[in-house]
Amino acid sequence: MFKYYSMSEFFAQLESCNFWGGHVHDTGIPRQRYLDRLKAFLGNRLTKVLVGQRRSGKSVILRQIITGLLAQGVDPRNIFYLDKERLEFAELTDFQQLDELIGTYLKELAVRGKVYLFLDEVQEIAGWERVVNAYSQDSRRPYEVFVTGSNSHMLASELGTLLSGRYVPFEVFPFSFAEYAEAHGVARDKAAFIDFLQSGGLPELLHLTTDETRRHYVKALRDSIILNDIVRRHGIKNVDLLERLFLFACNNVGSLFSPNKVVHFLKSRGEKTNFETVTAYLSYLRKAFLIHECERFDIRGKEILSGNRKYYLNDIAFRHYLTSSFEPGWSRRLENIVYLHFRSRGYSVHVGTSRNLEVDFVIEKDGSVEYWQVCYLLSDESIIDREFRSLESIQDNYPKFVVSMDDISFGERKGIRHQRIWDVLASP
Questions:
Q1: Is 29 exposed, middle or buried (0-12, 13-18, 19+ CB in 10 A)?
Q2: What average pLDDT does the segment 231-250 reach?
Q3: Which of 143, 172, 295, 332 could form a disulfide with 254 if both were Cys (CB 3.0 to 4.6 A apart)?
Q4: Within a domain: residue 182?
Q5: pLDDT at residue 28, rounded to an integer
Q6: Which residues constitute the domain of residue 118?
Q7: What average pLDDT score do residues 232-237 get?
C-alpha cells in the first residue's frame, strides 16, 4: 500500500527534485547532439517531446536543458520539474492532481514571468495531455513545456489528439560509441569499440563493473519495460509469450523474418499463438522502444516492400546479457550498432534490395541517400567480392560504403569506399 500524499506533501517532495534553493542534481555527460537539436526549438510554445526506452537518458537531457537555462540567467523558481518515476509521486495519477500541483507551485513560490514546465515520464498520469495543451497554449502567461515518455503510442494518440501540429518529437537512444568513449574517458579506438560492442550503451551500465551486476540490471530493465510499458498499458495476458518473442528478436538480430515465420517457430516449440497475436506483440515491443523494425526497400523501384523485414534491438546489451547463445554473432551486432548510429542521427533506414542482392542499409536524410554494407572482416577475396557485389549492382551515383573490423582501411574499389567501423562511429 502506498502512503496517501496530500497536495502540500506532494509539493514538499517536489522541492527535493527541483533546483530551487541551490539544490544540485546529476547532469551526466552532455548529450550534445540532442541539446543542439533542441536549441533550434527553444523560446516558443511548441511542446518539446522526448521519447525513448526507459533508462536511455531522457531525464538527464531534461536536467541538462534546465542547467542551460539557469546558466542563461533564468530564475530557478521559474522552472518546474516533475520526475514521475520517483516513488513519492506514485499516487499522482491524473491530470487534475497535476494541474493542482502546478498551481500550488506557482502560488507557493510567487512565480512571476515565463514558466518552464518539465514533466518526466508523463504517460504515467491519466489525461496528462490536457494539462500540457492548457499550459502550452495559455494566453495569460508564457509557458514552455518539455515532456518525456517511454511509449511511442503517446505521439499517435494522446499528443496527436490535442496537440496536433503544436509539438516537436525527439527520439532519444542509449549512448552512441562516441558518447560511450567520452563517458569512460578513453580514445575512440578499436579497443574501446570492442568493449562497447559487448556492453552496449545503456547509461547505467557505466556504473556497474561486473558481468553479474550488469546482467542483473539488464534483466530488471527488460522486466520493467515489459511490465510498465506493455503489459499494464495493453492488458497483456500471455506475458510468457511476450518475453519469448522478445528473446526471439534478441537471438535473430538482423535476420529477415515475418510474423508468420515467428508463429511457425513458436508453434514448433509447443507455444499456442497466431499471426494476429504475434503482430500485435511485435508492435508493442516497438512502441516501448525495445526493438526497431527495418523494412525492405527496392532500390530500383523506389518502394517499400511488404513481407519479411529485419528487427534491431534498441541496445546491444539485451543480446549480450539476455541470450545464452555461444555464437557471438559479431556481424549481426555490428549491423545493430550501425543501424542505431544512423537512426540516432535522424536518418530513415531501410534494408536495400538490388537485383536480388541485399544491401544492409539504405539511409536517407533531407534528400541525401547513402548505401552501407556491414561485415565483420574482409578476410579473403570471396568475402570482399560478396560484400562489394551488392553495392556494385546499384546503378545510381549516391555514395556507397563498406565498413568492417579490419585494422586498416582498404581504400576504394569501383567507387565504393571501405572504412574501419570505429572510425565511422567515432563522429559525435
A1: middle
A2: 94
A3: 332
A4: yes
A5: 87
A6: 7-171
A7: 92
Whether 1 is covered by a domain: the verdict is: no
Q: What is the pLDDT of residue 89?
A: 92
CATH number of the domain to which 116 belongs: 3.40.50.300
Q: How far is CA 165 from CA 62, 130, 168, 420, in A?
A: 22, 15, 8, 41
At 324-338, the pLDDT tens digits run 765 667 899 999 999
Which of these three, 171, 189, 220, is where a domain ends? 171
Listed in sequence order, the residues at least 6 apart from 42 whose beta carbon sits closer than 8 Å to its beta carbon are 144
Strands (E), 63-209: 79-83, 115-120, 143-149, 167-171
Element (H, E) at 101: helix 95-108
- Contact, 128 vs 98, CB < 8 A? yes
Sheet strand arrangement including 400-404: 303-313, 291-298, 348-354, 357-365, 368-374, 400-404, 416-420, 412-413
Question: 152 with 185, same domain?
Answer: no
pTM of the model: 0.94
Alpha-carbon distances, residue 135 vs 25, 45, 147, 170 (angstroms): 26, 9, 12, 20
CB 318 within 8 A of CB 250: yes
Rounded-to-integer distance, Cα 365 and Cα 148, Å:
25
Asked if 164 and 198 sit in the same domain, the reply is no
Domain boundary among 127, 146, 171: 171
Predicted confidence at residue 327, as pLDDT, reads: 60
Would you call 60 helix, strand, or coil by DSSP? helix
Q: What is the pLDDT of residues 251-295, one digit of tens each?
A: 999 999 999 999 999 999 888 899 999 999 999 999 999 999 999
CB neighbours of residue 411 within 10 Å: 9
Please check whether residues 205 and 152 belong to one and the same domain: no
User: Contact at 8 Å (CB) between 343 and 269?
Assistant: no
pLDDT score of 163 more than 90:
no
Same domain, 135 and 193: no
* Beta strands per DSSP E along 17-173: 47-51, 79-83, 115-120, 143-149, 167-171
Beta bridge partners of 298: 303, 353
Asked if residue 397 belongs to a domain, the reply is yes
In the numeric block, the cell 525513448 is attached to 52
Q: For residues 47 and 168, is the Cβ–Cβ distance under 8 A?
A: yes
Quote the CA–CA distance of 129 and 203 in Å, as a whole number: 28
For residue 390, give the C-alpha cell. Answer: 551488392
